[in-house]
Amino acid sequence: MKIIVANTEKEFGELAFAEIKKVLDKNPACTLGLATGSTPIPLYDEMAKDHQQNGTSYKQVHSFNLDEYVGLPKEHPESYISFMTRNLFSRIDIDMRNVNIPNGLASDIPTECARYSDLLAHAQVDIQVLGIGGNGHIAFNEPNTPFDSTTHQVFLTQKTISDNARFFNGIDEVPKSALTMGIGEIFKAKKLLMLASGKNKADAVYRMIRGEITPSCPASILQNHPDVVVILDKDAAALLV
Ligand code: F6R
């Protein structure tokens, strides 16, 4: 596991982008695994800036997002398809036909989970961007999710609901359920790029890197992956020194 601590938010975005760019340079038709939330925004800003200034193209890129809320209309500003379109897809030249996000509006949720798992089983994610929850979750795999899980529906913990309330007009508006890529599927990516920033992540980051490998901290499984880059800001790295 390679751990890098950024000095500024700009550097955080640049360091994360450097990892994505290496993969893109090697294979312009690569498959990116993408995450939502506030943490990857500096990365998406760098991708957009580089696309605009240097013309890096995503025309041949395929992407898989980690998760989506259940029941939130696609046009709701906090649906993950809206988030990704606003923060990344509309700012680069990716072909939207190559974009994959679980459909949280599917009438048959088990069939939708099986469809997404099947797509992932036939793909090879070259680099998967990850964030970490304050409780150690990755994607929406909450504590005690089996390490070999595939795409499934989750009921969010109270901690995740209250953490995500900042994006909504109050806690009651936060969806209680989501579809998430499973830990087993995340683990199959060739490379994992874990990003964490802020004091509220310091404890989870410590448990991910130094703690026991246990389903009670889903991110701890990263210790077993052969190619992980962790980019932290100073606050998130605070307990590691
Ligand atoms: C989002 C996701 C979540 C977030 C995590 C951190 O697609 O999979 O695991 O990465 O909840 O969220 P932020 O970055 O908002 O602190």
Overview of the molecule:
It is a single chain. The chain has 241 residues and is α/β, with parallel strands linked by helices. It has one domain (2-240): Rossmann fold. 31% of the residues lie in helices and 17% in strands. The protein has seven helices and ten strands. The strands form two sheets. A seven-stranded parallel β-sheet has the order 1-10-9-6-2-3-5, with helices on one face. Strands 4-8-7 form a three-stranded antiparallel β-sheet, covered by helices on one side. Helix 1 (9-26) packs across helix 2 (41-54). The two termini are 16 Å apart. The chain binds fructose -6-phosphate. Fructose -6-phosphate (F6R) binds next to loops.
How would you sum up the global shape?
globular
What is the averaged pLDDT score? 97
Percentage of residues in helical conformation: 25-40%
Bound molecules: fructose -6-phosphate
Structural class: alpha/beta
From the N-terminal CA to the C-terminal CA, the straight-line distance is 16 Å
How many alpha or pi helices? 7
CATH class wording: Alpha Beta
Number of domain modules: 1
Radius of gyration: 17 Å
Summarize the helix and strand pattern as letters. EHEHEEHEHEEHEHEHE
Strand line-up across the major sheet: 1-10-9-6-2-3-5
The CATH architecture assignment turns out to be 3-Layer(aba) Sandwich
CATH topology description: Rossmann fold
For the report, how would you describe the main beta sheet?
Answer: 7 strands, parallel
